[in-house]
Amino acid sequence: MSRKPPAWLETAVKSDKYIRMVFIDLEEREVKRDAARNSTRHRQDNEFMGHAYRRVVDKNHATHYSIAIATHPSNEGSNRYTNVEPYDRSRVIVQSTALTGAPVSPASSEQLDPHGRYLNASWVLEKFGQKWWIANQAPLPNTAHAFLSVILQPVTQPQVSGTALPPFSREISRTSRVRTVVQLTRNIEDGRRKADAYFPTEVGRSVVLRAESGYNGPPLAVKLLHTNSHADTSSIESIISISPFDDITKKPNEGKAVIFRHLLYLKWPDHGVPEPEDTDSLLAFVHQVHRLNKDLSIYPAHQANMTVRGVPELDPDPPIMVGCSAGIGRTGSFVVLSSLLRHFGFLDAPIRPSPSSVLKPSPLGPLPDNLTSDLVAQEVDSLREQRPGMVQRPEQVALIYQVLMDAFMSQT
Fold first, then answer.
1. What DSSP string describes 336-380?
2. For 99, which DSSP code?
3. Tens of pLDDT along 327-357?
4. Which residues form a coiled coil (predicted)?
5. Cα distance between residue 131 and residue 287, in whole Å
6. Which residues contact 348 (CB under 8 A, 6 or more apart)?
7. Separation of alpha carbons 46 and 412, rounded Å
8. Is the pTM of this model over 0.85?
């Protein structure tokens, strides 16, 4: 059945003025979040600024938007950029027991584990599509071990605002793992380092990654099993295995290897958007990501069919990790697109949807009345509540409207 685009979408793709208005309204709210974030910084060189912000920032805002853990001196070297840090309440905590199979879930302000391993990554929930993601910066050489440890450890859907998960979700969390990593930046762009490689480029080769200072976990052997280029989606697909070293033999334990799929999109420049002729490939890439996240063909047949107390060993629809360089501009745009394509029926609904009501309400209150019908604006604002700066530029907002319209127009 053909779907008709909503009126607000038709207005947006025809009016640059409308898009500027949307972005300005969204930025006014982000400025308030930024002031609250800055009031919680630990950096000594910002101490005077921090005091200045604290004099004018509401205490509840400062608590809600705190980045105190991310900006602590012990964690500053794990941030690729000095102005992009995850909120304390939604950051991904990498448990020190990650390689022993203990489940990990994101923190809330009431359930914060300050002793977990730090990673510049955030749990984010689609407002309208109702699927969970992990939004992350491109791993640094000193954070690649922690990044891959997230894939090794079972994950649960986030428990926020005191919301209890249904029994099925608690049960499947014992075996659910991230299986798909999306990278929206090349490692080098315009001569500048935007991401660091953490797996080899030659099939059959392995690299060894050691844990960051302060964590005594075993090294990881990371092996490239297969790679394939996809012209229709302008992407490179890589199949990768991670094997923790055995404590006794001091060699990779391939019996405990975990396999994941890495998908690199090639046509999205930093601080910009794909060229008009590349938006078709972007839309196709979004579909590819979600289709392959449910694909079990790369896993051994016995593993794909095995159950633990009646629950599949492989989660049929696990969270996806997505990142660019900072993990906010292109990353946020990709999540917004996925959410709204899902909402309008162009992507399958998540197997275990989470309503946005599980998130804590914004202390800033609702969006202005002129944006109450605009789902793009609402989705962007919701993501910015969960990770700072999501969808950075007006051009990225315009891209979301256009690709969403392309989906409506491409119906047959």
1. HHHHHHHHTTSSPPPSS---GGGSPPPTT-SPPGGGTT-HHHHHH
2. G
3. 999 999 999 999 999 999 999 999 989 999 9
4. none
5. 15
6. 290, 342
7. 56
8. yes
Other beta carbons within 10 angstroms of residue 275's beta carbon come to 11
Classify burial at 369, counting beta carbons within 10 Å of its beta carbon; exposed 0-12, middle 13-18, buried 19 or more: exposed
For tokens 């000095």, what's the residue?
82
Q: Which amino acid is at 111?
A: Q
Q: Is the dihedral of CA 390, 395, 397, 402 positive or negative?
A: negative
pLDDT tens, position by position, 191-231: 999 999 999 999 999 999 999 988 888 999 999 999 999 99
* Cβ atoms of residues 324 and 331 within 8 Å: yes
Alpha-carbon distances of 331 from 137, 156, 318, 354, rounded to whole Å:
9, 21, 18, 20
pLDDT of 48 > 50? The answer is no
Q: Give per-residue pLDDT as tens, 109-139.
A: 333 345 579 999 999 999 999 999 999 999 9
Report the C-alpha gap between 1 and 171 in whole angstroms.
Answer: 37
Extract the tokens encoding 187: 């490692």
Assess contact for 38 and 49: CB atoms under 8 A.
yes
User: Among all chains, which residue has been given the structure tokens 């490939």?
Assistant: 281
**pLDDT recorded at residue 180:** 98
Domain ranges, ordered by start, for the chain: 7-22+89-99+116-159+174-301+314-410
Angle at 91 between CA 86 and CA 93, to 5 degrees: 135
| Tokens describing residue 179 | 């299986």
Q: What is the DSSP string of 240-280?
A: EEEEEBPTTT-SB-GGG-EEEEEEEE-S--TTS---GGGHH
Specify the residue for token string 């002793």: 115
Residue 132: CA count within 13 A, CB half-sphere: 28
Instruction: Please identify, in words, the CATH class of the domain defined by 7-22+89-99+116-159+174-301+314-410.
Output: alpha beta
Can you name the residues that pair with 238 across neighbouring β-strands? 227, 262
Q: Average model confidence (pLDDT) for the chain?
A: 87
